[in-house]
Write a sequence for this structure.
């Protein structure tokens, strides 16, 4: 994550995933700049002029979708914008996470503040008010096909602006109608085009993508560290990670992972102990980490780059270029992110898939000094055998979730919207897979730490030794069976906290170490 700033100017400055997360978590204050305010006011005035002149423009004085040829009178243009929020609020399912809803608000404010949407400044200021006062709309997770924008979720997100819908406030769910009375805050009356501007856009998909970028980045970092620990536990070879090999097939992700693992294994006594052993090569799950983890790194980089374009784009419809030119296009179509999110889902699933294989490898007992099932006294004890059942189940579940949502399209809007992206499903599935991968990696952390123990009194390099010591402050070495679900829960907490990557950074600084990688900036910032 890049160094966070303290203030961000909506509509003017460049938004990244890390800045969006900083805004959502209260680490950065968001403001609409003076420059953006002028553009917003000019755009709103252009819409007012269109209405005054009676020019026919989609969504301003016409109906929506298949009703695009139905002209709306000047008197009814405001009613039209309120009705669209009501009629399109058809979401179902469990609500999205609160942070995702906050991200949706942030991304929408930034897109609208660019001044091409005809939104009123007062509407954007009310959206900021919701964020600043932690009054966050409750948004159902299902109902968007990701094409004419994320219509249903965005409608639910903005119902509170007109005094409807539900919000989370002070830790409780409540109706905005009641809360408006309690706080003495009057509902807004939307002007021409405002309702359409609010609900056309890709902010549901993009908000999920922001979370995917963060969580996949964390999973990639953990996979390298835990995989390196497993190399030590099973006395794998360092040769497959030599820079000379990866210069001959220079994929950025491969080179980055190989360099990270070389750094993690630096100074290892365990490696030195078996440097002249007779083993010719390791199984793929150990020696092909640069290729497999690296391919997932490349997918992450692809998503990050596309998402950054989307975060700084105007994605509603129609777009008000100037008073003479209003374009009804397809910038709300979610396909660019939908396909990238499906790619990221596959990339995440493969991290879990190869991690499960390393866990299985550790249980086989084929590495000298490491007992079968990672326990000396088996028979009466099952050892770590059943933990791999869990990772197998999770890996299988992930494979089922890898079918690309963007490969499907069901026509909507009476055929007017005859190709849709299903990107909202891509985003939701990606997070579901990543949550499963986190659990798989947590179990690999336990098994790698157990195998690592059998290498004593030999030491690894300082980095992995510090990680192993840290794990042992939370989870003890297992000499006999116990309720391993408790260990798994503790390992998941370790990964979710980010303390492993923080400890690596701290230890590297203390020992004057640097990563052996050419592509650190690209892969370590977002």
């Amino acid at each position: 994550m890049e160094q966070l700033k303290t203030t961000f100017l909506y509509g003017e400055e460049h938004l990244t995933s890390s800045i969006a997360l900083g805004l959502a978590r209260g680490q950065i204050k968001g403001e609409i700049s003076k420059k953006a305010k002028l553009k917003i006011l000019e755009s709103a005035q252009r819409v007012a002029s269109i209405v005054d002149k009676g020019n026919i423009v989609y969504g301003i004085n016409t109906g929506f979708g298949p009703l695009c040829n139905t002209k709306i009178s000047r008197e009814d243009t405001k009613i039209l914008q309120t009705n669209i929020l009501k009629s399109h609020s058809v979401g179902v399912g469990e609500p999205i996470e609160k942070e995702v809803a906050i991200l949706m608000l942030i991304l929408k404010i930034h897109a609208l503040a660019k001044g091409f949407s005809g939104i009123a400044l007062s509407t954007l200021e009310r959206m900021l008010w919701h964020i600043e006062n932690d009054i966050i709309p409750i948004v159902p997770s299902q109902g968007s096909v990701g094409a004419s924008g994320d219509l249903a979720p965005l409608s639910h997100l903005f119902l509170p602006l007109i005094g409807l819908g539900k919000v989370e406030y002070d830790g409780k769910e409540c109706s905005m109608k009641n809360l408006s009375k309690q706080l003495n805050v009057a509902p807004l009356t939307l002007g021409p085009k405002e309702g359409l501007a609010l609900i056309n856009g890709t902010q549901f998909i993009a908000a999920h993508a922001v979370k995917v970028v963060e969580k996949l980045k964390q999973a990639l970092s953990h996979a390298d560290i835990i995989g390196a620990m497993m190399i030590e536990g099973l006395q794998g070879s360092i040769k497959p990670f030599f820079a000379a090999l990866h210069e001959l097939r220079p994929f950025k992700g491969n080179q980055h992972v190989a360099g990270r693992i070389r750094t993690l294994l630096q100074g290892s006594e365990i490696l030195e102990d078996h440097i002249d052993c007779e083993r010719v090569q390791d199984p793929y799950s150990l020696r092909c980490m640069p290729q497999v983890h690296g391919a997932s790194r490349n997918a992450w980089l692809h998503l990050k780059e596309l998402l950054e374009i989307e975060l700084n784009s105007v994605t509603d419809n129609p777009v008000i270029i100037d008073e003479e030119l209003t374009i009804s296009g397809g910038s709300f179509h979610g396909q660019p992110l939908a396909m990238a999110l499906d790619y990221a889902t596959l990339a995440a699933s493969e991290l879990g898939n190869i991690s499960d294989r390393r866990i299985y490898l550790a249980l086989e007992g084929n590495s000298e000094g490491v007992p079968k099932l990672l326990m000396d006294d088996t028979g009466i004890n099952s050892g770590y055998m059943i933990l791999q059942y869990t990772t197998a189940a999770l890996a299988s579940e992930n494979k089922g979730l890898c079918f690309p949502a963007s490969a499907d399209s069901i026509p909507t809007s009476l055929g007017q919207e005859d190709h849709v992206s299903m990107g909202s499903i891509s985003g939701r599935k990606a997070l579901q897979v990543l949550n499963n991968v986190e659990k798989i990696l947590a179990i690999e952390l336990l098994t790698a730490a157990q195998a690592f123990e059998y290498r004593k009194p030999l030491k690894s390099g300082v980095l992995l030794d510090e990680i192993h010591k840290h794990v042992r402050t939370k989870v003890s070495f297992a000499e006999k069976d116990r309720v391993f679900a408790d260990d798994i829960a503790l390992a998941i907490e370790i990964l979710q906290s980010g303390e492993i990557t923080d400890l690596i950074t701290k230890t590297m600084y203390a020992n004057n170490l640097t990563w052996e990688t050419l592509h650190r900036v690209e892969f370590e910032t977002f």
